Structures are given as C-alpha cells and as structure tokens.
Amino acid sequence: MSHTQSRSLIHRIPHTRWLSTSFARFERHMLNLRKAKSLSQIAKEWDAIAALRDDQIASGKDHSANVVLAPAILARLKTCKSLVDIGCGTGWLTARAEEHTSLAVGVDPSNESISLARLRHPGRSIKYVAESVETFSRRRAKFECAISNMAASCAPDLQGFLVASRRILKRGAPFLLTIPHPCFWPLYWGYASHPRFKYQRTFAVEGEFKIRREATAYLTTHFHHPLELYVSSLGTAGFSVESLEELAGREFDYPRFLLVAAKAK
Ligand SMILES: C[S@@+](CC[C@H](N)C(=O)[O-])C[C@H]1O[C@@H](n2cnc3c(N)ncnc32)[C@H](O)[C@@H]1O
C-alpha cells in the first residue's frame, strides 16, 4: 500500500477507533500521560530503581550522566564554602562535587537513594538528608551554591521545588540545574506523538526507565513542562537566569538536555 493510500485509509477510520489504537501503541510501551502524581509516589519509584541507577552510573553504562550532564555542571562550578545537591539521588554527583566545597549536603526524598548515598558515596565533608527540598528548606540552612541534576523535572510541584531551592540559598548564590530539553525530550522519550500530548501543558509522564544502552521494567515519572514555564517559575521563585546551554547526547540529532545557570536574587 502506498503512503498516500494508507493516509487516506487513516482518514476513513472513525476518529474514536483511531484514537484508541494510538493509545494502545503507547500502552504497549508503557507510556502514560497523567495530570499529576504525588511526591510520595515519585519517591517510591526512585526507591525501587536506586540501586540499578547507581550501578548504571558506576559502570559507565549511563553515558549521559557521566559524559554529558556531570561534566557540564562541574565545569561551571566555582569553589564555594557550602554546596547543596537538590534531588541528589544516590549521591554520585554530590561526591564528585565535594572537591569544590568545604561542606556538601545532598537532599532527596527517596529513602533508599539516601541510604545508598551514605553507603556508596560517603565523604568527610558530605552529609545526606532524606527529605524533599520543600521540607529541608524549613530548617533554614543557607548555602553558597546549589546543583541539581535532572531533579526539577521529577518534582510534582515545580514552583514549590524552586521556591524551596531559593529559600536555602544565600543572595547571589549560583544554582546550576539540568533538565530534559522540553522541546526535544518528548521526541527522544517517544511521547511527542501521544494523542494527549500538548507541548504548552504540564504532564506527568510515566514510563519504563531507559538509558541508551539499557531498557528496564522500572516505572519512573518525569514531568513535561514547556520551557517558558521553567523560565517564568525560576523568576517567580527569585532567580535570574544567567545562561542556558543545550546539551547533546549520543545518537540523537537534537539537544537532549538543558543546563540552566541561575542566580539567587
Ligand atoms: C532523575 S532522578 C536524579 C537523581 C540524581 N540527581 C542523579 O543525577 O542521579 C530525580 C530525583 O529527584 C528527586 N526529587 C523529586 N522531587 C523532589 C523534591 N521535591 N525535592 C528533592 N528531590 C526531589 C527524586 O527523588 C529523584 O531522586
């Protein structure tokens, strides 16, 4: 059947049937777009996959974490007296950042990730706290700089996450965060053509976690937000955006990640 014939056939299929077959395609790949998801559900998902994630990074299987994301953050990190890694997961990046600071604190609501961080990535000047940044910010500790790798996009409340991040930073402190590139990640992850996807809206995207060299059966969730929302939310939370860097991965023609260099106003 030619391309033109198949297209005209699609137009003759009743709309509802076409939609249900399209949804089925995404269900087969375990990709589900939801309106929201709670922080405790998110933390449980990261609990379940914590050991595997740490192995993927330690073994070098996770190329993006080791070769794209961590070097981009660390290259911009200036020496500071105190640093907080917001959404630190198993602490591998907190440990790599330790040499830039006299005190490093990793914060994450996933208990399992924090237990692994204490076990596998300890350091003389590192502390780990099993709390969301929102809860941690009530302690009123203030840091000279912050890093956050791929965590803002996993927080169910983006604005709450950023406001809390600002609260734990001194005025003028740099905040280096990476996020999935909102324009291209939906293509990479495979939901850009999902019947419910709209770039301008926020979605909780549930799917089986994958890295380039390994698919897994673990369900994790990230949130899609349009780029404009990230930038406006940073502004509302009290940050100025100093620069954006588009980061490429391997075997994907578009930038997969964004590094945002912000500053606490
Ligand atoms: C994609 S993982 C990244 C973990 C780690 N930064 C890394 O590079 O391996 C996202 C992390 O964000 C954490 N997270 C989600 N919401 C959070 C919040 N409100 N405060 C702090 N961390 C949060 C999750 O528990 C999860 O560990």
TL;DR of this structure?
With 265 residues, the chain is of the alpha/beta class. The chain has 10 helices and 10 strands.
Structural class: alpha/beta
Q: Spans of 5+ residues with little confidence (pLDDT < 50)?
A: 1-19
Strand order of the largest sheet: 4-3-2-5-6-10-9
Strand content: 25-35%
Q: Could you tell me the radius of gyration in angstroms?
A: 19 Å
Largest sheet: 7 strands, mixed
Order of helices and strands: HHEHHEHEHEHEHEHEEHEE
Bound molecules: S-adenosylmethionine
In total, the number of strands is 10
Helix content: 25-40%
Tell me the overall shape.
Answer: globular
Provide mean pLDDT, rounded. 90
Distance between the termini: 60 Å
Count the helices. How many? 10
Which descriptors would you attach to this protein?
265 residues, alpha/beta, seven-stranded mixed β-sheet, three-stranded antiparallel β-sheet, globular, disordered N terminus, binds S-adenosylmethionine
